[in-house]
Request: fold
Amino acid sequence: MASSPPTARSTEISYCYAAGFQYNQNGFFRQAAKEYVRVHQLAPDNLDARLQLAWIYVINHLPDRALEILQAPLATPAKFGLNADNSPASACWPPPHIFKR
Reply:
């Protein structure tokens, strides 16, 4: 069974995620966040992009934005392929102390 060719949308998602990853690795967090936001717009169920974006918000002292981006995975973990064994909550992520004001 042959797989279908990638669509322009899936190609853009992959490109934006890869660009975000590279920016993040090189410390360009604002540019990385922009790419992860684009992935989130195109694929709202992409957990990896949400986690990367939340972490960027956390390290930039924006806990409310981090919580906002994590609200859906924490509220409906099954939708994001999470269960008791692999849930961020089971690993205590995000650590509660980062959200103290």
The chain has a mean pLDDT of 85. Residues 8-25 form the longest helix (18 residues).
